[in-house]
Here is the input.
Amino acid sequence: MSRPRAPRGGDAGELPAVVYTQSMQVLDLASAQLSGTPGVDATGDFYDVFPVELPARGRDGADGAATWWWVVMGDVCGKGMAAASVAASVRHAAHTVASDALDAAAGCDVAPNPALLLHRLHDILMVATGRRFVTAVAAVLRPDGHGGLVGRLASAGHEPALIRRVGGAVDVVAAGGMLLGLVARAPAPAVEVRVGAGEALVMFTDGVTEARPGPGSECFGLDRLTDALATSSGRSVRTVVDVVTTSAIAYRNGFLGDDLAILAVSPSI
Here is the structure.
C-alpha cells in the first residue's frame, strides 16, 4: 500500500495533500501521516492494511478459502530516520508473520489472531532492534454478511482504537497489553469487534492525543478526539481523518510537535 510523502512538522498548510484514500474490495480506508521533526520527512509512526487468504469450510462442507483483512498501526520510540527504519522493518515483519498468526481447533476453520501477531513482532524486536520499543494495535476483519465487518483486535501499549457508530456515538475498544520489544511480555487476549455499515474503525498514534499548544499545557486528549469524531457522523473515512487531524493541529496553534498517524477503515459502500 503506497503512501504520499508527509509534510514536515509545522507545515500545517500542506495538510490536505497528505490524506490518502483507497477502496480495497470490502473496505474503504483513509489515512494521514505527518512528521514532527523539522526538515525530516521520515517518521516512526506506521500503518498498513493487507489481506491474507486462509482455508475455510463452506456451509456445504466443501473446502474453500476466506479472505481476512489485517489492519495494523504502530509507533516506534524516537523520531527521524532511525525510528523510520525500525518502522519499515516492523511493517515488513507483520506481513511475514500474518499468515501464521492463527488459531486452529480440530474440525474448525483457522482464524487469524491479532494478539499472536503482536507477540511474534515482539519476539522479532527483542532480537533485532537493541530494545527500541514499539507500541502497536492490530485488527483482523472480514465481511459479516450484513454490510459490516467483524473480527478481533489486540493492542500492545498503544492508544485505544475507536469505533465511530452511526449517529455519532464513539466506542472505545478496551484492549490492554504491554508494549513490544522492551521486556518479556505475555500476549494479551484479543477482543471481538464489529464495524457496521456507515461506521468507522479509527486507529491513531499519540501525536494526536498528546498534542498541546505549549510546554506544560493540557493535552488534546481522548475526550477532544471523541468529540471531533462525533461531528463526522454519516461522513466518509476521508472526512474522519480530516476532522481529527485538523482538530489536533489547530489545538497546537497549527504546529505539529510529534509524529502523527491516523487511519480510518469502514465497510465498502
